[in-house]
Write a structure and sequence with these properties.
heterodimer, A: mainly alpha, 16 helices, B: six-stranded mixed sheet, four-stranded mixed sheet, 22 helices
């Protein structure tokens, strides 16, 4: 197994190189370039930009060079372990992505834990008490959870909070902590704000996982090994948890790989609506303004996370289910 | 000969009349003799602690005296605003309006700010700028003529930094205008021919839009300039900041919103960056302005811009009363909700600032469209354009898209502006007369219709289909496009509304691919300066699509592109002449230009004089000195022309 992990890790740079070219081409694909969207953005707030000024900016941003030179320029800095310079922010991308990435991962992880903590017990309960009142109640909640886009949920909650309590629940920090360096107080402030986005982000996943868990477990519960174990007098509680639950978890474990990047991109709209200092809005902004180095860097990080996530889920799967073999 | 002299006399009188209004009053005697200046408590503490020289030493000998809009203010407070990230840096420039001279609140004249006096020569070929003696940058270094000469010699004339000399710094023959230092506080601009738009141009050289301002902190910036800096050290700084060349480094370090270390002359200076979550400005202890009682301005301690990822959440914050004076990004559509909460919460009041002129949604046909010659011929037909104007029901647009605000009009200067061409021009072709439109369309050869009742292109069996491109940036433009399309289809012109992402729309505009578009005519008060939309030579970027290939014709001296019609050439002639004559003649020329513009329907106005673009101001109930009447436009840097330094919170 170690060999497989090492092999995969060795393949990583090559994969990233291929991805970097694809990502760059994709970001460049829409018509116009950074300057077009820059000028159109200025015009959309009332400015009218001089042509001479546009020429000066073109040179300043290096957009007078052909695309492959621009890619090589980005690649050069990538090879030096640096994500390059954002055209719009005029700041190194690493600096921009840094703290936002931390908050994004934190939000994703907490949502993930929340999802599992709620979904697994709920799934087990539903499967072991099928057609009970709570099972039906959970089913209704699940359907609503899957069917409601989470940004809509965010909007509704935000409006309710504002119209009934006069508070606007946006962002992850109170104003005084937005720019503050990390401290216990700041972390506390973060915890005060993070629960709502966590619920909103986690709710669809929770609903989906609950259904998957319930279905898988129901399949397992009627299998002969369960009947045998029960006949041998194993307590119902131990019985369910020890074997069927473990097997029913397989599909959940195998989806961790794409669950991570999905939480990142899935949070994009919610983060935009709720004004969360998350990497999602930064990516959105970079894509809209065709800030190719910034957008490329974020997308490359997504690719990296997907690869690593897949690896993690493979390893976990092998560990959770001995029937699965890993071969090179 | 006699006529010439006569003209010159009128010109002189006119210019003197203009200038009389533009000079700052001589230092008030009471202030000059007994400089008992007062300052904000937060600065007084610093002075007491020995960290700052006394206020008298920080102010110039002849400080700028700012008239309060309502009353003398009280110190303190934080002005909370919202912004949309680093691309929104002009939000900063509009607040501080950091320029040598600035437009008056009503936008009709130019007042002194950092300069104390600006005098033209008798023939208006040279302009002498006098700076305030003893004024200082926000870091305490003296503000002198060298700061202007650094801009001229080391920035403007440096091909790497400024690849193309801007129009206002070029003589007719293409040579660069000469700027010379007279003494430490006096600089002179020398033109080859008379120039009467100098003050109007200077009022916008404030580093808005990332254009280099005409005055730069030379002492600070020299460390980033290849001519002055040590090469090894400069290379190191460039590498550290991840830039390629010193040019990028200097540009970034020079732009105040990106660099809190750069000294400024503005009332507030940045302490964080525009790329941060909170962009914060703090009062400038060296600001040159005082009120009539000698209190150093600004009154408000801090300006705080909060980052919003989305315009809607910014608007929600405004409705919740979390923004103190915000007009930027407030959408007109939210006006009813804002009005409702104004009464309910009592936290803010709403002020409407009408447009300074022009139209808030106008239609332009591309007259140099090349992809379909039949269609192009149709667009080039003046009667067709008039018919399209008569077909539009402007009242309906006004009521449904502009909530009843504004008026139906053509895109020309506002009635209270000296350039106003009169009602006959402003209202021409604005009545809703579909029958007349039908008759005109029949007459121009569009008299055959297909089975569905749509008109066919003359001499073909193809339907005349117009694609109206619209960008959803200024409020309800897509809705307006739909209303116009419906009106046009009623007179038999099939219209496809294309709502496009703005970068795509701009790319198409530049590629001459747009057939017709909706944009605004917001700078009608400034046809001679900046980037006027009436001038075919400034087309394409952020302007309108009357004829992109006309511009090419002008750019290449007639070798490429399409020769514009006589009327367009006449407009260019008028604009050029307007730049050399006094205000009265200027007004006459502007009016003539507007007449040609409307007569030919180069642009079809719908509704104008509305607060659509940044004219709905949400103002904290306790904030004072915010004018209820204010001209609003980008050249005016609104709300910068409201003298933001005298805004204050009533305790």
């Amino acid at each position: 197994m170690l060999r497989v992990v090492v092999q995969r890790l060795l393949l990583l740079p090559a994969l990233l190189l291929v991805f970097s070219i694809l990502v760059f081409l994709l970001v460049q694909a829409p018509p116009g370039d950074f300057l077009t969207s820059y000028v159109s953005m200025l015009a959309a707030t009332g400015s009218s930009v001089d042509l001479a000024q546009v020429e000066a900016l073109k040179r300043q941003f290096g957009l007078d060079q052909p695309i492959y030179i621009q890619y090589v320029r980005w690649m050069e800095s990538l090879l030096k372990g640096d994500l390059g310079l954002s055209l719009e922010y005029q700041r190194p991308n690493r600096e921009l992505i840094g703290e936002l990435l931390l908050l994004t991962v934190l939000l994703a992880l907490i949502s993930f834990v929340f999802t599992w903590l709620v979904a697994i017990p709920a799934g087990i309960y539903s499967a072991t008490h099928p057609r009970s009142f709570l099972d039906y109640a959970l089913a209704v909640l699940n359907y609503v959870g899957v069917a409601t886009p989470n940004f809509l949920l965010a909007l509704v909650l935000m409006w309710l909070a504002f119209s009934h309590f006069g508070i606007s629940i946006t962002g992850l920090f109170s104003p005084e902590y937005v720019q503050a360096p990390w401290s216990l107080a700041r972390f506390g402030d973060l915890l005060k704000h993070i629960w709502l986005p966590v619920i909103i982000l986690g709710i669809a996943g929770t609903a989906r996982l609950t259904r998957i868990m319930r279905a898988n477990l129901l399949d397992e519960l009627n299998k002969p090994y369960v009947v045998t174990a029960r006949a041998k007098g194993l307590s119902e509680w131990r019985l369910v948890l020890k074997y069927p639950v473990r097997i029913a978890l397989n599909p959940l474990v195998s989806t961790i790989g794409w669950y991570l990047p999905q939480l990142f991109s899935g949070s994009l709209i919610v983060a935009t609506v709720m004004n969360l200092p998350n990497i999602g809005p930064l990516l959105l902004r970079a894509l809209i303004s065709q800030d190719m180095y910034l957008a490329g860097s974020i997308l490359l990080i997504y690719c990296f996370l997907t690869i690593v996530g897949t690896l993690i889920s493979d390893v976990l799967l092998a560990w959770a289910d001995p029937r699965i073999r890993m071969e090179g | 000969m006699k006529g010439k002299r006569h003209r010159l006399v009128i010109l002189t009188i006119a210019i003197l009349a203009l200038c009389a209004g533009t000079y700052a009053p001589a230092p008030t005697h009471a202030l000059a003799q007994a400089p008992k200046y007062k300052e904000a408590p937060m600065l007084a503490e610093l002075v007491k602690a020995g960290k700052l020289p006394p206020v008298g030493q920080r102010l110039p000998e002849d400080p700028l005296i700012v008239e309060a809009f309502e009353s003398i203010g009280q110190y303190g407070g934080v002005w909370r605003r919202g912004f949309l990230g680093p691309g929104d840096f002009n939000n900063y420039h509009r607040i501080v309006y950091d320029a040598l001279v600035r437009y008056s609140p009503d936008g009709t004249k130019v007042d002194m700010k950092l300069a104390s006096k600006i005098e033209p020569s008798k023939d208006y070929t040279s302009w002498t700028v006098t700076l305030r003696r003893g004024a200082r940058w926000s870091d305490g270094t003296p503000f002198t003529a060298d700061d202007i000469m650094f801009w001229y010699n080391d920035v403007l004339l440096n091909k790497d930094l400024v690849p193309a000399i801007p129009t206002w710094m070029k003589n007719k023959d293409g040579s660069t205008v000469v700027v010379e230092k007279i003494d430490d506080y006096t600089v002179r601009w020398v033109y080859k021919e008379p120039n009467t738009t100098f003050l109007l141009e200077l009022a916008n050289k404030d580093s808005g839009d990332r254009v280099y301002a005409v005055f730069l902190p030379s002492k600070y910036l020299k460390q980033f300039h290849a001519r002055y800096a040590d090469k090894a050290q400069l290379d190191r700084m460039v590498a550290e900041a991840k830039f390629r060349t010193w040019v990028e480094l200097l540009a970034a370090r020079n732009h105040p919103p990106e660099n809190p270390e750069r000294p400024t002359m503005a009332a507030w200076v940045p302490v964080t960056r525009v790329s941060d979550q909170l962009f914060i400005l703090r009062r400038n202890p060296y600001f040159v302005g005082v009120d009539k009682e000698g209190n150093q301005l600004p009154y408000i301690d801090f300006v705080q811009f909060k980052f919003f990822t989305d315009v809607a959440s910014l608007n929600l914050a405004a409705i919740a009363g979390q923004l103190d004076m915000q007009e930027r990004h407030i959408s007109l559509v939210n006006y009813p909700v804002l009005k409702e909460h104004e009464k309910k919460s009592g936290k803010f009041r709403i002020i409407l600032w009408g447009a300074f002129g022009g139209g808030d949604a106008s239609v332009t046909f591309n007259q140099t469209y090349t992809r379909d010659p039949d269609l192009a011929r149709m667009f080039q037909n003046r009667d067709f354009r008039i018919a399209m104007s008569l077909a539009i029901n402007r009242n309906e647009i006004k009521e449904s898209a502009f909530l009843g605000l504004g008026e139906a009009r053509q895109p020309v200067a506002a009635p209270w502006h000296p350039y106003y061409p009169g009602d006959a021009v402003a209202k021409k072709y604005t009545e809703h007369r579909p029958d007349e439109a039908n008759r005109m369309l029949d007459r121009v050869g569009l008299d055959r219709k297909d089975a569905e009742g749509f008109r066919l292109l003359p001499g073909t069996t193809r339907r005349a289909i117009v694609e109206l491109s619209v960008v959803p940036v200024f409020g309800p433009w897509p809705d307006i496009a739909q209303l116009i399309a419906k009106d046009w289809e009623r007179v038999g012109i099939r219209t496809l509304v294309q709502v496009r992402e703005r970068a795509l729309h701009f790319t198409m505009r530049m590629a001459n691919d747009l057939q017709a578009e909706i944009w605004n005519q917001d700078t009608s008060g400034f046809p001679f300066t900046g980037v006027p939309k009436y001038d075919p030579r400034s087309l394409l970027y952020g302007t309108i699509t009357t004829g992109p290939l006309w511009k090419q014709w002008y750019d290449t001296g007639g070798r490429e592109g399409v020769e514009p019609p006589a009327e367009t050439k006449r407009i260019v002639e008028l604009i050029d002449r307007g730049r050399t004559v006094g205000p009265r003649e200027q007004a006459r020329i502007a009016q003539e230009m507007f007449r040609i513009w409307v007569d030919n329907m180069f642009e079809i106005g719908t509704v104008g004089l509305t607060p659509l673009d940044q004219g709905v101001a949400v103002v904290n109930a306790r904030m004072r000195n915010v004018p209820t009447k204010l001209a609003k436009d980008w050249p005016l840097r609104t709300p910068g022309n409201a003298r933001t330094e005298q805004f204050f919170y009533k305790k």
